[in-house]
Write a structure and sequence with these properties.
The chain has helices spanning 5-18, 23-31, 33-43, 45-49, 54-66, 73-85, 90-100, 106-121, 133-146, 154-159, 161-177, 182-194, 201-213, 218-228, 234-261. By secondary structure, the protein is mainly alpha-helical.
């Protein structure tokens, strides 16, 4: 079925602004072209303002789509391909994924304070114990590598310094071996902490503070959030093709029934 002039206009504008097209967009275009036009206007804001360069924007999209709380693999594939076209190296993209891999520690960031609260309520803990020499060394290593310390690490370091030492080595790998500038690293953390599938407020505030410290502007940080704000479209890009397929099947069945009605 050919596109209407309006549908073709929307498709051409989408490709011009976003530089991509695919079957899901085609299905959405046919099902509700004006919705796609509205989405294009919404998603295009960061691409029209351009506070971040295009390669960094694609790295932000990768961080949002690939992280463990979302894992939207069609989007990850699309934005990895776009980042490569824009000059990102495989090492830079791998670094983004390595930064995203730290998201799992938020189980400890959220869980350990609750554990401590329960221990105190049950009379099994009276207060934090002084740090040992080993714990002080681990804290110093984290601070030197990551450039900050936050109080939400204190209880984890106290209760399980071996785990925290292992996490320090794991999370510091991109900081020791990566090539992205520190500001961009912090923007990656902001991307997945602010995403609707995670919303880790303590980490978000911390990484905004760190990004500002590395020279990020309010407009750059807002652009990261604007990119994250389009995540909801994946409800449509995932399910609209299913709707289009089932509608086509239903119409085909109806056509067969109608044909049979006149076959005698």
């Amino acid at each position: 079925m050919s596109l209407t002039p309006r549908q073709q206009q929307i498709k051409d504008e989408f490709i011009k602004v976003r530089g991509t097209w695919g079957e899901a967009w085609e299905d959405i275009l046919r099902l509700d072209p004006e919705f796609l036009a509205a989405y294009l206007k919404f998603s295009a804001v960061p691409w029209r303002k351009n506070h971040l360069d295009d390669k960094v924007k694609e790295l932000i999209y990768i961080a949002i789509d690939a992280n463990a709380t979302h894992m939207y693999l069609p989007g990850a594939r699309q934005h990895i391909a776009a980042a490569l076209r824009l000059g990102a190296t495989p090492a830079e993209i791998m670094e983004v994924l390595e930064l995203c891999a730290t998201l799992g520690i938020h189980a400890m960031n959220i869980g350990v304070p609750i554990l401590v609260e329960v221990l105190q309520e049950k009379g099994l803990r009276t207060g934090p114990a002084p740090l040992t020499e080993y714990q002080e060394e681990v804290k110093a290593e984290f601070t030197a590598t990551r450039g900050y310390w936050h109080s939400f690490w204190d209880e984890m370091l106290e209760l399980d310094p071996e785990l925290f030492a292992a996490y320090t080595e794991f999370s510091s790998h991109p900081w020791h071996h990566g090539t992205l500038e520190p500001k961009v690293k912090e923007l990656i953390y902001i991307a997945f902490d602010t995403a609707a599938t995670h919303l880790y407020v303590k980490g978000l505030k911390l990484h905004i503070e760190n990004a500002v410290g590395y020279g990020a502007t309010a407009q750059e940080i807002l652009e990261v959030m604007e990119i994250a704000s389009v995540l909801g479209i994946h409800a449509v890009t995932s399910a609209a093709p299913i709707l289009a397929e089932l509608v086509a099947e239903s119409r085909a069945d109806d056509s067969v029934v109608s044909s049979d009605d006149f076959s005698e």
